[in-house]
Amino acid sequence: MTGRSAYNAYRERRTLDRIQSVADARDLARRRVPASVFQMFEAGSGSDITARRNEEVFSEVLFRPRNAVSLPEHDISTTVLGHRISMPLIVSSVGFLGVAHSDGEAGVGVPPARPARSSSSPG
């Protein structure tokens, strides 16, 4: 890794470490990705019932700042359908993820389900 790319990786980690709410994450995405891409992921479909419900549920998530706090090692890994995953977070299959990552669905960690508008094939 070159000095410049190491510095950029460091800056990226610092930026991500500052996210303390869903609104912070949304604001960061709004600044980082092209407007058309942000709008695609921000938009719901149909009457937006699912998007509104997701917003309600995410508003119940509280982020706790952990400044100057010593935390013991925690293992938040779990098993899903017999496969060990590092954290209890699963991304539903979403189409057009090629606009979010150059490796498409595989690059953002989507399981090998194939949405109707997938930008890559599983496997």
Question: How would you summarize the topology of this molecule?
Answer:
Blueprint: H1 3-17, H2 22-32, H3 35-42, H4 49-58, E1 78-80, E2 83-85, H5 104-107
Antiparallel strand pairs: 1-2
Structure in words:
GO terms for molecular function: oxidoreductase activity. Residues 14-123 form the FMN hydroxy acid dehydrogenase domain. This is L-lactate dehydrogenase (Cytochrome)/(S)-2-hydroxy-acid oxidase/(S)-mandelate dehydrogenase. The chain has 123 residues and is mostly helical. The chain has two domains: 1-67, no CATH class; 74-123, no CATH class. Helix content is 39%, strand content 5%. The protein contains five helices and two strands. It has helices at residues 3-17, 22-32, 35-42, 49-58, 104-107, and strands at 78-80, 83-85. A two-stranded antiparallel ribbon has the order 1-2. The longest helix has 15 residues, at 3-17. It starts with a helix and ends in a 16-residue tail after the last helix.
Short description:
This protein is mostly helical.
